[in-house]
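Entry:
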Amino acid sequence: MIHPDTELRFISDEIGVGVVATRLIPKGTIVWIADELDIVLKEDFVDSLDEVRQKVVYKYSYLNEDGDYVINWDHSRYMNHSFRPNCIDTVFDFELAVRDILPGEQLTCDYGIMGEDEEFECLPEEGTNRTRVKADDYLHRYPLWDEWAREAFRHFHAVEQPLKHLIKDEYIDEVNAVAAGLRPLPSILTLFTEDPEDEDEA
């Protein structure tokens, strides 16, 4: 589920539509969280679909840790990519605002964090020389993504959290401990490998 202070708006002819903040969303706020209304499709089922529906699934879904395709039930599926995103994924099935997101500003995430199989070119952006989302981005970018998430977590208990009640029971104690500085934040790399040290050495 996307933060309630957002709406779908037309961004440009090149980009199409995107998710935009309607009020200030402070740094450290949960901006998106997985919930039970999301549509989860098994790979075999998606493989059995006709080409037209497959293309829609591939465009608007992401793969979860079980290899299932997940389609968000609300307008969060229209969140666009940026190499300088204002939202960051965590291991707890939610994203945090990495800085204050102003009214009228588009919410963005780095698609590289999803470990996409297919690489693709992106529109040029000021402040970065990255132009392509690569399948192994997570292996090279995770230290920066982890730092963004750690910094955002420092504000977690100081801001309003309208989506906090949707945090899964299995995560809530650890989330509160991380936000209070009592436990380290697990690396986003753990979603891709059981042993981040092994991946570093490869």
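The helical segments are 43-48, 51-60, 137-153, 169-179, 196-201.
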